[in-house]
Amino acid sequence: MTEEAILRTEGLTCDFGALRAVNGVSLSVTPGTLHSVIGPNGSGKTTLFNLISGELRPTGGRVYLEGRDVTGVASHDLPHLGLARCFQRTNVFPKLTTYDNVWVAAFSRHTPGALGFLKRASDFASVDAEARRILDAVGLAHKVAAPAETLSHGQQRALEVGVTLASSPRLVLLDEPTQGLAPEATQHMTRLVQSLVGRYTILLIEHKMRIVMSISNRISVMAFGELIAEGTADEVRDNRDVQRAYLGTRR
Amino acid sequence: MNVAFFAGAILNGLVTGMLYALMGVGLSLILGLLNIPNFAHGVLYALGAYVMISAGKAFGFLGGALTALAVVGLLGAVIEYFGVRRLYRVHSDYILLLSFGLSLILTESIILVWGPVGITSQPPAFLTGGIDLGVTVYPKYRLAVMFITTALVLGCYLFVTRTRYGAILRAGIEDKDMAAALGINIRRVFTLTFAVGTGLAGLGGALMSPVRGLLPTMGIDILPFAFVVVVLGGLGSLPGAILAGLLVGVVQSLMTAIWAPGADASVFALMTLGIIARPQGLLGRR
Amino acid sequence: MFEGRPGAFLRFVLLLVAIVALPLAVRPVVASEIWIFSIAAMALNLIFGYTGMLSFGQATFFGLAAYTSGLMMIHWHAPLLVVLAAGTLVGALAAAAVGYVCIQRVGTYFIMLTFGFNQMFFFIAYKWTAVTGGDDGLPGIPRPPLALGPWSISLETSVRYYVFVAVVFLLAFYAMKRIVDSPLGVIFQSIRENPVRAAAVGYDVKWYKWIAFTLAGAFTGFAGVLYSMMFGIVPLESISWIISGDIVFMVLIGGIGNLYGPLLGAAAFKWLSEAISVLWNRWPLILGVALVLVVLFLRGGLVEAFARIRGAFGGGGGRRDADEGVPVRVGAEGEART
């Protein structure tokens, strides 16, 4: 019996006027795995994420989350359906503290009902515990009270991931979590991402090939908005089309 | 209520409408480039009218109008250079508040210089009287103003869309940092745009003064209509502002003819319907 | 209530001192106006300082509530608590309706829409003289006594009215504090900080903006009712852009984003306008100049000015962003809470 894919797209297409940024992408993600999406710059990877997470409406095709059609569903509904994403350019709440950044993301899943809003924010012990747990997991426990905008780039990327995880998702879309990070921070982030596999299903966009090849269960390759290859790390590495798409560059 | 009555109302609507379009175009330019609603736009329109009154006595109609254009345009450039410019890097709300503060200062200054009482002004001798249009007799001056404002609006549109300077302006609207990086003196573009936008408002005020009379509050009275025109017309869209201006002018004028108390409210009702039906405005890009 | 935060407690004590001392420093009428406008300023702060929406049309709700309560008191001799409730409700309902349209747009367009609606209601009030009295205002508004069970307390004198206003102000302040301390406080701020991300973590941004706007309308309406009973007349100005602008000034001058800023702003504004208008009836000119100066040179407002003064004396104060005066945590007093 094949396991139901946690995420399935069918012929997903997105046009910006005359420009077709994503063209008929169909992929399927197995629960509990780490599935990477790679491709040269401009191949449509982030646009694909935007289509899945509701930031953009597809002009064609469908998206299924745990068997349920979520095509065109608003981005604010998806965390409640089990999907959360992080952004390529750090997209946190700059003037809120690190703690509040994660707290507000965690709270959204708690739906206390109207009366809940009569309570103080600090009264929600479970949300507080959740926020601290996540800050600990991403290594920001020592920075709880700092405004997010005062964090270093690496710390902000960690916060970015933390905010994403705070929605208690089952499927996590990570868009270049190691973007702009120095080698040591990159290693730290890689270990963090690896630690999430199994508990979460991860769809990962990454440019650093060594990381992708070593931690992915499955890799999809995009070029010019289309899916040109898919398979395990070895299969993809030996694929001629993939090599051509990257113009022979290896990282 | 007969044909002549409605014809007159529609013509009035077109005259006012073209004025609104002129205000909307100026405001739209400033809005598109600087991302702020210029609260001072109304009072600069008023200032143009008042300058016209005084300058017209010395320099005649044409001289008065040109003086109004120059004075208000120059003031706009000064405001941009010394005030607005400091605030580009900060949240645009502050520029709005600055413009509001300026509108207070200028309104009070108008009262100080010209007094708090309303003033009437007369059209130039060669444009007094009416002209027989067949369906109705209509004041010559109003027709003249309508043609002039139409020419100004079209001129503005052609300038922005057809000339090299206009292309620079549009580039600056799209991405000011990129435009600056390409070596375009974006600051001068901003200052000039502000000057042109405000100058047009002043000129509009000068030309309309014989039609509408002058009051120190005329600036704040016209401002919401200019806002409605821009919101209804769509983000940074000049054709949208023109279309919306005419629409607002005609609707307001017809309502004034049918049921005067509802005239102003009908404009806002129109805006509400427009926003709900088409959030990006009539011709706005989404 | 203050859970071992001495700074917050101290600030509250200062507020109580201010309430007691104010009528000694200025006429009770002016003092009452300060607390009335403080409520309206707090309301704007909720949508501007916390949620990031600048409304230039709060007078809509202030004026509508004032006219409604005025008419109810004149024609139906409605009791005090009833008009307070009615005005608050009118403010909330009007804000719900107007807000629904305005929040379809953001930023500049939102501002213009709030201003536009304000002008629409102003024009209606101006022309509908049979109901509102138009330019002359709505006169003859009584000041009903406060009826609580068997007791009936007259509020006729300005001192008595001041006490009443001060007490209801404290109630309103407490209500606002509870809102800001509730999850809504952080949610609103997250919308201000990054609406795209707020949606991405699961919040329907438009819905929360609408809630904020409606709440602010309720508070502003409440203030409007208190204003209608101040002078026994509802002037046309109560629904005009002038009051809308005044409320914006107060929040700006006092410092946005924390709960005490608007109070400082209201006090400074009312005191200043009172003092200057006695000297010169062209005082809006001074106001305009003050606004320009604050915007160009002192954007954090008075709160920042105080913070700078405190800093100059080596004091700490809470961590604050110099430009915005926004606290680092949702706490009403701007303390960093962990």
Could you explain the architecture of this structure?
The complex is a heterotrimer of chains A (251), B (286) and C (338). By secondary structure, chain A is of the alpha/beta class. The mean pLDDT of chain A is 89. The N and C termini of chain A lie far apart (38 Å). Chain A has eight helices and eleven strands. Chain B is an all-alpha fold and 286 residues long. Helix content of chain B is 76%, strand content 2%. A two-stranded antiparallel sheet of chain B has the order 1-2. In chain B, a hairpin with a 4-residue loop joins strand 1 (130-132) and strand 2. In chain B, helix 1 runs antiparallel to helix 7 (186-212) and helix 4 packs across helix 5 (164-174). Chain C is built from 14 helices and two strands, in the order ααααααββαααααααα. Chain C has helices at residues 6-25, 28-50, 59-76, 80-102, 107-127, 129-132, 158-181, 183-193, 195-200, 205-228, 241-254, 261-279, 283-297, 301-312, and strands at residues 146-148, 151-153. In chain C, strand 1 (146-148) and strand 2 form a beta hairpin. The longest helix of chain C is centred in the middle third of the chain and has 24 residues, at 158-181. Chain C is globular and about 50 Å long. Residues 313-338 of chain C have low confidence and may be disordered. Chain A binds chain C through residues 53, 55, 74-80, 84-85, 87, 91-97, 99-100, 103-105, 107-109, 112, 116-122, 124, 144-145, 147, 163, 166-167, and chain C through 178, 181-187, 189-190, 193-194, 196-205, 319, 321, 324, 326, 328-330, 336-338.
